[in-house]
Amino acid sequence: MKSLRHFPFSWVCRAVPLFAVLALLWPEFARAGYSIKAPLADGFDQAVGKPDAKGYYIFRGFWPNGHLGEDWNGNGGGDTDMGDPVYAIADGVVVFSDDYKRRWGNVVIVRHAYREKNGSTVFVDSLYGHLDKRQVRMYQVVKRGQQIGTIGNCHGVYAAHLHLEIRKNLKIGMNRSAFAKDYSNYYSPRSFIAEHRSMSGRGETVSIPVDSFGATNPDEPRESGTEPPPNVAKNAPKVNIPTRMTPKANPEEDRRKDLNEQLRLLAEENKKKTESIKDEDMDGFWSKLKNKLGKK
Ligand SMILES: [Zn+2]
Hints:
By secondary structure, this protein is of the alpha+beta class. The chain is built from seven helices and 13 strands. It is globular, with a radius of gyration of 24 Å.
């Protein structure tokens, strides 16, 4: 009799803290399952030297079928940027955080939702590779400019730098070889960021699908304890994940935009160079010219 009387009490004693811990650990899953509610991105910034990459430069740009992201280095070159902060380029949810080893090292992927001018909601993934430290966990909601890790060297494989990718296709994950390495799946990061610095949607939240590339990455290493609780995931509604997130994907248009962007950057650089040429550098050339023109 004694043991029966005590049974419900001890069950409650055990269950309450368990549920409290679950609720603390997975508040988002308790509500949404395969998707997580997070704010719409109100704009995109650079991942280093936030918000404008001050003190950093791209030493290797994006090129389809070649380099599918940008390599960012500190102005000091070499390993001077080792351990520098890396920031989320926009509000979003962490959908991958692991040491992938191989030629990747520590990798974080953040998924962002934003609103197009036509009102449709679009998703993109930003990938941060070769990190020294990862400072976010799977399924964590992160803010624009929040530090998510530090610049690393991929366990000594490279000189320290950040490899940054922006993907249209949410299924890629760490399985790049299964997808076309071009503008149908990727953005040129600097073009994308330049075109999405400021957006509407501040304060709005949306459901962001989070398990889109698990199935395409059978050997994908996962941190222990980062899977959603099975009972929640099983009962959660399936979220439809389109393979191509841009409603009217137009690789040719993107390529043209990227070339234009590169030309614009070149022109800007040349303009800066011209502006920085002072009269004394030119041995009085400009004053002489002005005088000459004035005399006419
Ligand atoms: Zn790279």
